Amino acid sequence: MKINQTVLKEFILVGFSVYPQVQTFLFVIFFCLYLLTLSGNLAIMGLTWVDRCLHTPMYFFLNALSFSETCYTLTIIPKMLVNLLTKNRNISVIGCGLQMCFFLGLGGTNCVILTLMGYDRFLAICNPLRYPLLMTNMVCGKLVAYAWVAGFFVSVIQTSLIFRGSFCNPNLVKHFFCHMRAVVRLSCLDSDLTEFIVTVMSVSGLMGTFLVIILTYVFILSTVLKIPSAEGKQKAFSTCASHLTVVIIHFGFASIVYLKPEASGGDDTVIAVPYTVITPFLSPLIFSLRNKDMKNAFRKVLGKKFLE
Question: Where are the transmembrane segments (predicted)?
Fold first, then answer.
């Protein structure tokens, strides 16, 4: 048990206040990235809604991912931007718990949706004849609902474990948002055990979904290699290229955050930036710029605007 057990009502997010000389510069950079991220995700959601050619399971899941990532960035980035400009970096204990719950829940939802996108490509390439029967609108809707339920089921358990007791002074969260590791260390209870449990849960979810995606691509690769024509192989690979790129970036940056050994040092605040800011920015960029259907849909919308 820790001493100095004061019932805390709020935390102070230390964040980037340890780098006062670059806070304004960081605000400009993060604000621009956030606007571009928001614009990219809204563009994807809009295009998949208005263009009937994009009313397919693949783009249904892409739409779901864009919506989830929009909510994900909305959970932490606006608060971070405000904290970069003000000296009042307080957040209530309840607000911190809600932010953590939504951050973990939406992060888990993103992982499951990326897995579903891999499963969709697996069915489309490895079982094309039964694909329309297996991937109906009803099935796609149920799978996305499952992704949200699974993500938030785990996040509620993790948040409850961390916030089940009181917190001790100092109330300084050494992060720019309520990251579970930074908050659990302030617990008056056995924080080492709680930190181990919630970290194992996150790593298990992360590695589990990643291994399922890898497995689907093993089957996809074995099927594609059997296609006799080079054009057929290229067409099959092209439908997977954007997804695979985002998967590598998403799980690569996430693994740095959650698999980093405690003794390795490094500023957790800086290490979390690629996962929380860069990855959501790159995802819509990759899915839109590397996708011929998305580019064609964008040209159609622009063409109609100019004709009007």
Answer: 25-47, 59-77, 97-122, 143-163, 196-224, 236-259, 271-289
